[in-house]
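User: Structure with iron/sulfur cluster, tokens only please.
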Amino acid sequence: MSTHPLHTRHERSFDENRFVYPVLSRRAGGISVGVNLNPDKVCNFDCIYCQVNRTRQSETRFVETDSLLEELEATLLWVASGEIYQSGKFRDTPHELRRLNDIAFSGDGEPTTYRNFDQLMTDCAAVKRRLETKGQPGSAAPVKMVLITNASMFHRPHVERGLRVLDANDGEIWAKLEAGTEDYYQLIERTPIPFRQILDNITMAARIRPLVIQALFMRVHGEPPPPAEIDAFCDRLGEITSAGGQLKLVQIYTVARPPAESYVTPLADEAVDEIVERVSQRTGLVVRGFYGA
Ligand code: SF4
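Assistant:
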């Protein structure tokens, strides 16, 4: 029987967490501890493929910082101690994936719209550092802090400050870009924020540190993205790098769970492969593909 202080804490109490949730991520090669900064499910995009269920209202509307930080610390300890693998859905985790990979800020909306984003990044980084200093098991390598974002707010000073906190704490920014033209961008993201703003923000942020680009492509009414759109997407990536932006990886993936609109369906594996090939040839960047379910 474990003597770990968290032993008395039931799995159920983690199920009751409101802001922090561990997930097994094959893509990350380990456990990713997600932090939801948008419990109200509000987003400044309205992507046609969004997988957040907005038909059900959430009971939690606001981020309660103290609870969030407590949940983060307890969940990191639960994963780092290995106790997580004694419980329900994590019991079958393959041995090679039994490691804590990252803290991921994503959740049910755009995390950078949270108004105290910079302060929260600082507080979460402090929790991570405290555990790392104590040499928690499984934390031999630093735990990454991954921000999964639509890049719409990078130009706001408090977000810029938050990004710099990430830079100083093993941060990685995964910025969404999945169109080459304003029209296709509007078809997919349905937002009043101009495409130009997103491109400028990504360029500005990528000049300071290398970014990961996340591009989700899909069939819309049965049609995959037109080749001309993929070429335009490559041109936009080229413009970012020509302007001094560093892109360390482009991830191409497709829908895996039921999306917001029923006319959105996943790309076939071969279609993902074709896009990966085309983007990698045209841009010379490192490109990786991920298939749907
Ligand atoms: S940016 Fe993310 S959370 Fe917002 S609508 Fe798009 S997919 Fe959903």
